[in-house]
Design goal:
Blueprint lengths: L6 H11 L1 E4 L5 H16 L6 E2 L9 E5 L6 H9 L2 H9 L4 E11 L7 E4 L7 E2 L2 E7 L10 E3 L41 E2 L8 E5 L4 E3 L8 E9 L4 E2 L30 E3 L1
Antiparallel strand pairs: 1-10, 2-3, 3-4, 4-12, 4-14, 5-11, 6-13, 7-10, 7-12, 8-9, 8-11
Helix pairs in contact: 1-4, 2-3
Length: 268
Protein backbone atom coordinates (compact mmCIF):
# COMPACT_ATOMS: atom_id res chain seq x y z
CA UNK A 1 0.00 0.00 0.00
CA UNK A 2 1.26 3.43 -0.91
CA UNK A 3 1.79 5.04 2.53
CA UNK A 4 -0.17 8.14 1.54
CA UNK A 5 -2.02 6.89 -1.54
CA UNK A 6 -5.28 6.10 0.23
CA UNK A 7 -5.33 7.83 3.59
CA UNK A 8 -8.98 7.04 4.26
CA UNK A 9 -8.51 3.31 3.71
CA UNK A 10 -5.34 3.27 5.80
CA UNK A 11 -6.89 5.27 8.64
CA UNK A 12 -10.02 3.10 8.63
CA UNK A 13 -8.00 -0.10 8.92
CA UNK A 14 -5.92 1.40 11.71
CA UNK A 15 -8.98 2.66 13.59
CA UNK A 16 -10.57 -0.79 13.33
CA UNK A 17 -7.55 -2.96 14.10
CA UNK A 18 -5.07 -0.75 15.96
CA UNK A 19 -2.35 -2.05 13.61
CA UNK A 20 -1.39 -1.79 9.94
CA UNK A 21 1.61 -2.94 7.94
CA UNK A 22 2.88 -0.42 5.41
CA UNK A 23 5.45 -1.54 2.88
CA UNK A 24 8.57 0.45 1.91
CA UNK A 25 8.01 3.37 4.27
CA UNK A 26 11.78 3.93 4.16
CA UNK A 27 13.43 3.98 0.76
CA UNK A 28 16.81 2.21 0.34
CA UNK A 29 18.78 5.33 1.26
CA UNK A 30 16.71 5.78 4.42
CA UNK A 31 17.15 2.11 5.32
CA UNK A 32 20.90 2.66 5.12
CA UNK A 33 20.58 5.74 7.34
CA UNK A 34 18.59 3.72 9.88
CA UNK A 35 21.14 0.89 9.82
CA UNK A 36 23.97 3.37 10.43
CA UNK A 37 22.00 4.92 13.27
CA UNK A 38 21.38 1.57 14.94
CA UNK A 39 25.03 0.59 14.61
CA UNK A 40 26.04 3.93 16.16
CA UNK A 41 23.69 3.30 19.08
CA UNK A 42 25.16 -0.16 19.62
CA UNK A 43 28.70 1.21 19.46
CA UNK A 44 27.95 3.98 21.99
CA UNK A 45 25.14 2.87 24.31
CA UNK A 46 23.23 5.62 26.06
CA UNK A 47 22.30 5.82 29.75
CA UNK A 48 18.98 4.04 29.11
CA UNK A 49 20.49 1.12 27.19
CA UNK A 50 19.81 -2.34 28.54
CA UNK A 51 20.27 -5.98 27.71
CA UNK A 52 16.82 -7.52 28.01
CA UNK A 53 17.93 -11.14 27.72
CA UNK A 54 19.49 -13.44 30.28
CA UNK A 55 23.19 -14.33 30.49
CA UNK A 56 22.50 -17.90 29.36
CA UNK A 57 20.74 -16.83 26.16
CA UNK A 58 22.73 -17.97 23.08
CA UNK A 59 21.90 -14.62 21.48
CA UNK A 60 21.22 -11.21 23.00
CA UNK A 61 18.37 -8.70 23.04
CA UNK A 62 19.59 -5.10 23.35
CA UNK A 63 17.45 -1.97 23.66
CA UNK A 64 18.20 1.75 23.81
CA UNK A 65 15.96 4.80 23.98
CA UNK A 66 15.83 8.53 23.23
CA UNK A 67 18.95 8.84 21.10
CA UNK A 68 17.64 11.22 18.44
CA UNK A 69 19.16 14.39 19.98
CA UNK A 70 22.68 12.99 19.46
CA UNK A 71 22.31 10.62 16.48
CA UNK A 72 21.63 12.83 13.43
CA UNK A 73 20.39 9.94 11.32
CA UNK A 74 17.60 9.19 13.79
CA UNK A 75 16.55 12.83 13.95
CA UNK A 76 16.49 13.06 10.16
CA UNK A 77 14.31 9.97 9.82
CA UNK A 78 12.01 10.93 12.69
CA UNK A 79 11.45 14.43 11.33
CA UNK A 80 11.87 14.28 7.56
CA UNK A 81 10.83 10.81 6.36
CA UNK A 82 7.23 10.02 5.39
CA UNK A 83 6.51 8.75 8.89
CA UNK A 84 5.18 11.99 10.42
CA UNK A 85 2.61 12.34 7.63
CA UNK A 86 1.67 8.68 7.99
CA UNK A 87 1.27 9.12 11.75
CA UNK A 88 -1.00 12.12 11.15
CA UNK A 89 -3.17 10.12 8.77
CA UNK A 90 -3.42 7.14 11.11
CA UNK A 91 -4.31 9.20 14.17
CA UNK A 92 -6.49 11.68 12.24
CA UNK A 93 -4.73 14.51 14.02
CA UNK A 94 -3.88 18.04 12.92
CA UNK A 95 -0.47 17.95 14.60
CA UNK A 96 2.16 15.30 15.33
CA UNK A 97 4.98 15.41 17.86
CA UNK A 98 7.89 13.03 18.14
CA UNK A 99 7.65 11.14 21.43
CA UNK A 100 10.80 9.05 21.39
CA UNK A 101 12.93 6.61 19.44
CA UNK A 102 13.59 3.04 20.50
CA UNK A 103 16.29 0.77 19.08
CA UNK A 104 15.67 -2.98 19.45
CA UNK A 105 18.24 -5.54 18.34
CA UNK A 106 17.93 -9.30 18.62
CA UNK A 107 21.10 -11.06 17.60
CA UNK A 108 20.91 -14.34 15.73
CA UNK A 109 19.69 -17.32 17.81
CA UNK A 110 18.22 -15.10 20.55
CA UNK A 111 15.72 -17.10 22.59
CA UNK A 112 14.35 -14.27 24.73
CA UNK A 113 10.87 -13.29 23.61
CA UNK A 114 9.34 -9.88 24.15
CA UNK A 115 6.35 -10.66 26.39
CA UNK A 116 2.85 -9.59 25.43
CA UNK A 117 2.13 -6.08 26.72
CA UNK A 118 0.67 -2.66 25.98
CA UNK A 119 2.98 0.36 25.79
CA UNK A 120 0.56 2.91 27.24
CA UNK A 121 0.86 1.89 30.94
CA UNK A 122 4.64 2.43 30.80
CA UNK A 123 4.34 5.97 29.41
CA UNK A 124 4.01 9.47 30.92
CA UNK A 125 1.35 10.61 28.46
CA UNK A 126 -2.40 10.26 28.07
CA UNK A 127 -3.99 10.55 24.65
CA UNK A 128 -3.43 8.92 21.31
CA UNK A 129 -0.05 7.79 20.05
CA UNK A 130 1.34 5.52 17.35
CA UNK A 131 4.49 3.40 17.19
CA UNK A 132 6.23 2.58 13.92
CA UNK A 133 8.38 -0.61 14.09
CA UNK A 134 10.82 -0.61 11.16
CA UNK A 135 13.43 -3.31 10.54
CA UNK A 136 16.61 -2.70 8.58
CA UNK A 137 17.15 -6.44 8.10
CA UNK A 138 14.76 -8.97 6.52
CA UNK A 139 12.44 -10.35 9.21
CA UNK A 140 10.71 -13.67 8.55
CA UNK A 141 7.16 -13.93 9.82
CA UNK A 142 8.17 -16.33 12.60
CA UNK A 143 10.57 -13.71 14.03
CA UNK A 144 8.33 -10.69 13.61
CA UNK A 145 6.57 -8.39 16.03
CA UNK A 146 3.04 -9.67 16.71
CA UNK A 147 0.03 -7.44 17.44
CA UNK A 148 -3.44 -8.48 18.60
CA UNK A 149 -5.83 -6.68 16.28
CA UNK A 150 -8.63 -4.81 18.06
CA UNK A 151 -6.91 -4.88 21.45
CA UNK A 152 -6.45 -1.09 21.37
CA UNK A 153 -10.13 -0.79 22.27
CA UNK A 154 -9.56 -2.59 25.58
CA UNK A 155 -8.68 -0.92 28.92
CA UNK A 156 -5.23 -0.79 30.42
CA UNK A 157 -3.90 -4.22 31.39
CA UNK A 158 -1.38 -5.02 34.11
CA UNK A 159 2.15 -4.07 33.04
CA UNK A 160 4.85 -6.37 34.36
CA UNK A 161 8.64 -6.42 34.17
CA UNK A 162 9.74 -8.42 31.17
CA UNK A 163 12.22 -10.82 32.79
CA UNK A 164 10.76 -11.35 36.27
CA UNK A 165 7.09 -10.56 35.51
CA UNK A 166 6.77 -8.35 38.59
CA UNK A 167 3.84 -5.94 39.05
CA UNK A 168 6.16 -3.02 39.75
CA UNK A 169 3.89 -0.14 38.67
CA UNK A 170 0.43 -1.08 39.92
CA UNK A 171 -0.58 -3.12 42.99
CA UNK A 172 -1.48 -6.74 42.32
CA UNK A 173 -5.15 -7.00 41.42
CA UNK A 174 -5.63 -3.33 40.57
CA UNK A 175 -5.74 -3.91 36.79
CA UNK A 176 -6.98 -6.81 34.73
CA UNK A 177 -4.30 -9.26 33.67
CA UNK A 178 -3.32 -9.89 30.10
CA UNK A 179 -4.98 -13.01 28.74
CA UNK A 180 -2.77 -16.07 28.24
CA UNK A 181 -2.41 -15.53 24.52
CA UNK A 182 0.19 -18.26 24.04
CA UNK A 183 -2.14 -20.86 25.58
CA UNK A 184 -4.74 -20.35 22.82
CA UNK A 185 -3.30 -18.28 19.99
CA UNK A 186 -6.14 -19.23 17.65
CA UNK A 187 -8.57 -17.36 19.90
CA UNK A 188 -6.92 -14.04 19.02
CA UNK A 189 -6.53 -12.10 15.77
CA UNK A 190 -2.74 -11.98 15.80
CA UNK A 191 -1.11 -9.95 13.03
CA UNK A 192 2.47 -10.65 12.01
CA UNK A 193 4.23 -10.17 8.73
CA UNK A 194 7.14 -11.22 6.54
CA UNK A 195 9.04 -7.92 6.41
CA UNK A 196 11.68 -6.45 4.16
CA UNK A 197 14.00 -3.62 5.25
CA UNK A 198 12.07 -0.36 5.38
CA UNK A 199 8.63 -1.90 5.89
CA UNK A 200 6.77 -0.61 8.95
CA UNK A 201 4.28 -2.06 11.40
CA UNK A 202 2.33 0.83 12.90
CA UNK A 203 0.30 0.20 16.04
CA UNK A 204 -1.59 2.08 18.75
CA UNK A 205 -0.02 2.62 22.18
CA UNK A 206 -2.80 0.45 23.66
CA UNK A 207 -2.47 -2.44 21.19
CA UNK A 208 -1.32 -5.64 22.86
CA UNK A 209 1.88 -6.82 21.20
CA UNK A 210 4.92 -9.00 21.73
CA UNK A 211 7.60 -10.79 19.74
CA UNK A 212 9.18 -14.23 19.68
CA UNK A 213 12.87 -14.86 20.04
CA UNK A 214 14.88 -14.67 16.84
CA UNK A 215 16.00 -18.21 16.12
CA UNK A 216 17.59 -17.36 12.79
CA UNK A 217 21.33 -16.97 12.19
CA UNK A 218 20.91 -13.38 11.01
CA UNK A 219 20.28 -10.30 13.15
CA UNK A 220 17.01 -8.44 13.64
CA UNK A 221 17.78 -4.73 13.92
CA UNK A 222 14.77 -2.44 14.37
CA UNK A 223 14.31 1.31 14.70
CA UNK A 224 10.99 2.17 16.33
CA UNK A 225 9.75 5.76 16.21
CA UNK A 226 6.90 6.83 18.49
CA UNK A 227 4.62 9.79 17.75
CA UNK A 228 1.98 11.73 19.70
CA UNK A 229 -1.30 13.18 18.48
CA UNK A 230 -2.48 16.70 19.25
CA UNK A 231 -4.63 15.21 22.03
CA UNK A 232 -1.64 13.91 24.00
CA UNK A 233 -1.13 15.44 27.42
CA UNK A 234 1.57 15.14 30.04
CA UNK A 235 0.63 12.62 32.71
CA UNK A 236 3.28 12.41 35.46
CA UNK A 237 3.14 8.98 37.08
CA UNK A 238 3.86 7.74 40.57
CA UNK A 239 6.19 5.17 39.00
CA UNK A 240 9.30 5.44 36.86
CA UNK A 241 8.10 5.42 33.28
CA UNK A 242 9.87 3.84 30.33
CA UNK A 243 11.53 5.90 29.03
CA UNK A 244 11.74 7.91 32.26
CA UNK A 245 12.11 11.59 31.17
CA UNK A 246 13.58 12.49 34.55
CA UNK A 247 12.81 16.05 35.67
CA UNK A 248 10.05 16.64 33.14
CA UNK A 249 7.40 16.92 35.86
CA UNK A 250 9.14 20.09 37.07
CA UNK A 251 8.86 21.66 33.62
CA UNK A 252 5.46 20.50 32.36
CA UNK A 253 2.43 20.41 34.68
CA UNK A 254 0.02 17.50 34.62
CA UNK A 255 -2.45 17.84 31.78
CA UNK A 256 -0.23 20.16 29.75
CA UNK A 257 0.29 19.86 26.00
CA UNK A 258 3.62 18.14 25.33
CA UNK A 259 5.17 21.46 24.31
CA UNK A 260 8.81 20.82 25.15
CA UNK A 261 12.07 20.53 23.17
CA UNK A 262 12.12 16.78 23.90
CA UNK A 263 8.91 16.40 21.87
CA UNK A 264 9.27 18.55 18.74
CA UNK A 265 6.42 19.10 16.33
CA UNK A 266 7.23 17.08 13.19
CA UNK A 267 3.99 17.53 11.25
CA UNK A 268 2.75 19.66 9.58
Amino acid sequence: MDPLGDEKQLAAAYARDGVVCIRAVFDPAEVELAARAIDAVLARPGPLAQVASGPDDPGAFTEDFCRWPEIPEIERLARHSRLPAIAAALMATEQVRLYHDHVLVKEGRTEQRTPWHQDQPYYNVDGRGVSAWIPVDPVPEDGCLEVVAGSHREPWLMPRTFLRHEARWFPEGSLAELPDIEADRDAFDIRRFDLQPGDAICFDFLSVHGAPGFRHDTRRRVLSLRYLSASARHAPRAWRTSPPFDGLAGELPAGAVMDHPLFPVVWP
